[in-house]
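Why should sequence recovery work at all? Because a backbone constrains its sequence more than one might expect. Tight turns favour small or flexible residues, buried strands favour hydrophobic ones, and helices have their own preferences. The token representation captures these environments compactly. In the example below, the structure is given first.
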């Protein structure tokens, strides 16, 4: 029986059913498409973004050309200016895109939860609202971190305050002596009122007072509270409701 010989350095054949690794060229094109989508979304919300990008890219490039002509290094400095301009343009696009995303979220239900979810590290954010008003659809979102417990009201500040106070009392019974910070989303400048685009940074600037072990213990206690329960229609007590006996007998 003949034995197959494999030359040294030959690339082994891929196994059947194995997923081929994506080619670098395809990954590059995918990143460019994602970058274009971010640019289109940002310009649609904030048309001035294109002029800021042109300034961020063209400013360093023009400066590099001038310095290159004066110094005699007419290739090195323009190339350096182009690289700096690209980095500046990417930075400007990222900031304007973040701002445009918050602008598009303003006025939508659940915007406060989306803003809290943008916090990367140090906080545990509940993805679902912990309290909700069935009639007005006002919501309360919760986050837990070393600064304590943060409750954010999503709705008109004057109306959602009652829902926030109720959730604060509920949290205080389960986790006493833990700082509770109340915020409402809005631009009115009232007590505890924060613009949506500044909510994440405002929460991250809170002073830490708990250890990581205490944060884990508080999170475990709050999980015992459960989530939002569906509202029961007024006037109906499910514990006293009597079945229709005729319907049960088929009459």
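From this structural description, the recovered sequence reads:
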């Amino acid at each position: 029986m003949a034995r197959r010989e494999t030359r040294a350095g030959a690339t082994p054949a891929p196994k059947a059913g194995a997923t081929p690794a994506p080619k670098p060229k395809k990954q590059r094109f995918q990143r460019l498409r994602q970058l274009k989508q971010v640019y289109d979304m940002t310009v649609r919300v904030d048309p001035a973004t294109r002029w800021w990008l042109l300034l961020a890219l063209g400013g360093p490039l023009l400066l590099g050309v001038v310095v290159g002509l004066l110094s005699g290094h007419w290739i090195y400095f323009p190339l350096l200016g182009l690289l700096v301009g690209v980095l500046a343009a990417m930075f400007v696009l990222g900031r304007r895109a973040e701002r445009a995303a918050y602008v598009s979220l303003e006025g939508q239900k659940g915007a406060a939860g989306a803003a809290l979810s943008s916090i990367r590290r140090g906080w545990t954010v509940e993805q679902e609202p912990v309290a909700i008003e069935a009639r007005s659809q006002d919501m309360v979102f919760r986050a837990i971190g070393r600064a304590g417990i943060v409750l954010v009201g999503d709705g008109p500040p004057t109306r959602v305050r009652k829902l926030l106070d109720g959730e604060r009392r509920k949290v205080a019974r389960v986790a006493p002596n833990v700082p509770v910070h109340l915020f409402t989303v809005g631009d009115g400048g009232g007590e505890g009122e924060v613009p949506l685009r500044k909510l994440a940074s405002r929460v991250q600037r809170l002073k830490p007072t708990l250890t990581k072990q205490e944060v884990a213990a508080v999170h475990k206690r709050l999980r015992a509270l459960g989530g939002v329960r569906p509202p029961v229609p007024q006037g109906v007590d499910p514990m006293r409701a009597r079945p229709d006996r005729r319907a049960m007998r088929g009459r």
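A few observations help interpret the result. The longest helix spans residues 76-105.
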